[in-house]
Amino acid sequence: MLNAIIKGIASYVPDYVLNNEELSHMVDTNDEWIMTRVGIKERRILKKDAGSSYLGIQAVKKLLEETGTNPDDVDLLICATSNPDYRFPSTASVIAHGCGLEKKCYAYDIQAACAGFIVAAQAANAYIKAGLYKKVIVVCAEKMSSMVDYQDRATCPLFGDGAGAVLMEPTEDTSLGFQDGVFHVDGSGLENLVYKAGGSAKPATLETVAAREHYLYQEGRAVYKNAVMDMFNSTKDVMERNNLNNDNIDWFVAHQANMRIIEAVGGRLGIAEEKVLVNIEHTGNTSAASIPICLDEFKGKLKKGDKIVLTAFGAGFTWGASYLVWAI
Fold first, then answer.
1. What are the distances in angstroms from CA 300 to CA 46, 131, 164, 266, 303?
2. Active site residue ranges
3. For residue 145, what are the CA distances in angstroms to 15, 162, 196?
4. In 10 A of CB 283, how many CB atoms?
5. Which tens digit of pLDDT belongs to each residue from 20-62?
6. pLDDT value at position 236?
7. Average pLDDT in the chain
8. By the 8 A CB rule, do 308 and 118 touch?
């Protein structure tokens, strides 16, 4: 019986820092308002004339270098993104090409919004457990600034750009790696968190551009309520199924969407504050990339055998939780 482990992790965020002071000159907001409501001080923005693939390429190249992985040995690359470079081809194919992975590597995109990392990792886990692939890269690349309306003070302080990537491989030690996960989707959430125009349901027109429908739309109150409830319930399910509690888990990593959401979920679960990994203050919400970026930032604290619970919630609505045991 095989298990899938994370063999290596890397991330990339752009150099440019958009802090709350600069943002206050762009839209009617201020540092106190933003910090009180969402706990974000600054976020990174990609200023290059490039798409999400650029971010993903930097993260994957770093991952290959740090793990000493030959690009010719990679079997599969899964890219989770809500900000693809193009309608087609896939951003995964662009990243694979940019990293020289094409000798035998297949690549494709998934769209699970902010839950993209845990969903893509679950897919990679299934491929590995089935014996289909031995080296799978999951990369989450999000140029969130490409869909943010910087005239909307309710949403523009939230988001930043970045990418995170993990190398997943098989192990016969089933005490390590991904142990369990629960995933859900509820399409009735569409109206509360949606990119309204530009798809086949509502193609781009002069009218959709004038109506500013080519930006992320979020009904904040509804999203907050559902995110707290759904991340709590899915995490509670995973913890109960695996006899986990505050005493025997080592780390809890929630999607870095909003500091108040993270505090609410962690508090309801009874997880000690020092076990909750948080980096949202200086990254903002990087959607699918937020969990791997956070794990990479704190990887110096993680030890082989650490029990880690992950949870995320995003558009769809789609949400879930995963339990893994760190193997590095």
1. 26, 31, 16, 22, 8
2. 114, 255, 285
3. 14, 10, 16
4. 25
5. 999 999 999 999 999 999 999 999 999 999 999 999 999 999 9
6. 98
7. 98
8. no
